[in-house]
Specification:
The chain has 176 residues and is an alpha/beta fold. The protein has helices at residues 12-17, 20-25, 61-70, 90-99, 116-132, 150-157, 168-175; strands at residues 77-82, 104-109, 139-143. A three-stranded parallel sheet has the order 1-2-3, covered by helices on one side.
Length: 176
């Protein structure tokens, strides 16, 4: 999707050749792309849109701005932490506090790479850091690629859909 919200179709082969590194090599081309839309025929993804953003602590200011621009278009934010990193970026916390108006879920990923006691310590550190900063977390989710799909789908499907955008025109007309 281009910055003027026009959807352009590219082949899967072309899409697979695109990476952040490739876009960075061709100056100005990333400004021609607002985001990519990929569609999958998967019953687990029916009626679900997943927006994978570069995150808040991206080294690219434009990437961080894109993330901020879309975080409240969702019903919930799933903030993914690699259990091996185990720390929370302070500037990310600040941006979430200032901008997020939706429920926050923390996903601790790759938990199969650490002992459970170490995973517990990482979760406690993240939890304490966010709590001390006044950031409310709906739920902590531990996940790994080896876990059953249900472990991640259950929390995703439990998110309440916010229909504000769908009824916006009707709400304005009623208010008038």
């Amino acid at each position: 999707v281009s910055p003027d919200n026009l959807q352009k179709v590219i082949s899967e082969e072309t899409f697979k050749k695109i990476s952040k590194e490739v876009l960075d090599q061709i100056k100005g081309v990333s400004s021609l792309i607002q985001y990519f839309v990929m569609k999958y025929k998967n019953p687990n993804l029916e009626k679900i849109s997943i927006l994978d953003t570069p995150g808040f602590n991206s080294n690219d200011k434009e990437d961080a701005e894109r993330t901020i621009g879309v975080i409240n278009e969702c019903d919930a934010l799933f903030w993914v932490f690699d259990v091996n990193a185990g720390t929370v970026n302070r500037s990310s916390i600040s941006l979430i506090k200032e901008n997020l108006k939706k429920p926050l879920y923390v996903v601790i990923n790759k938990v199969d790479t650490k002992a459970e006691t170490e995973v517990n310590l990482v979760e406690q550190l993240i939890s304490k850091t966010l709590r001390d900063e006044g950031v409310s977390v709906q739920k902590f989710i531990r996940f790994s690629a080896k876990a059953p799909l249900e472990d991640i789908m259950q929390p995703i499907l439990s998110v309440t859909h916010c229909g504000e955008q769908e009824t916006y025109v009707e709400d304005v007309m009623e208010m008038l």
